[in-house]
Fold:
Amino acid sequence: MKIGIIGAGNVGTGLTKLLLPRGHGLMLSFHKDAEKLKSAAAAFGAHAGTVAEAVQFRDVVVLATPWVATAEALGQVGQVPKQKILWDCTNTLKPDMSGLSIGTTTSGGEEVAKLAPWARVVKAIPPFAKVMHSASMLIDGQRPVVFVCSDDAQARAVVGKLVDEIGGEPFEAGPLGLARYTEPAAMLLVQLAYAQGLGARIGLSFIREKTRSAA
Ligand SMILES: NC(=O)c1ccc[n+]([C@@H]2O[C@H](COP(=O)([O-])OP(=O)(O)OC[C@H]3O[C@@H](n4cnc5c(N)ncnc54)[C@H](OP(=O)(O)O)[C@@H]3O)[C@@H](O)[C@H]2O)c1
Structure:
């Protein structure tokens, strides 16, 4: 699969490192310093390009930008001839990480969908980049769960498969609107990791009794 990544930082390169060995073609884009982008891409064996190139020639686009730079990044996409799947990894973090800048009456995923009418948006916040850049994605022997939300079932399945390929445990939660609740769960992890001192080798797991019907 051809995958374009907007944001060549911790998450963008972490996903690149994990997806390249699975046979995908990766292009990284969006950096303040073009040379830094080229060397980041070269270090992980990916291509470097503009945001427009990372979107237009790809099947799936990953959005891995700081929330404050997201509108600027999506503003560089230009004309997109056909609908793309957009895997939104962003947290709507305030720059000082003290909280979320939006939430519960809307979500980052829904706001991204407004900024990217060319996309079938899938919200799926990956595990901490520290985990993705470490030797194993397992945390205490378990795969961290990644909630996958989108209004498009096919796009949800595609991103769910990519989550599985990187070593996460995808859980198809439902429509994009549920990102209103999965995003605060990711913020809880940020608080636990950094404000409460648990460190970034933490994640979520999801348990349910499969034999019982919902009632
Ligand atoms: N880090 C994690 O563990 C983690 C886990 C899950 C989700 N997330 C979310 O994923 C997103 C990315 O996080 P990250 O940790 O990968 O961020 P990051 O390391 O800061 O990387 C952000 C990328 O965007 C680029 N960028 C930022 N502002 C820009 C601008 N104005 N113009 C051009 N390029 C710009 C950065 O380039 P420069 O290096 O030149 O600034 C860098 O390539 C965030 O929304 C975050 O909340 C993070």
Notes: Residues 85 and 171 are 18 Å apart (CA to CA). Residues 7-12, 30-33, 36, 64-67, 69, 72, 89-91, 93, 125-126, 128-129 surround NAP (CB under 6 Å). Residues 179-195 form the longest helix (17 residues). The mean pLDDT is 96.
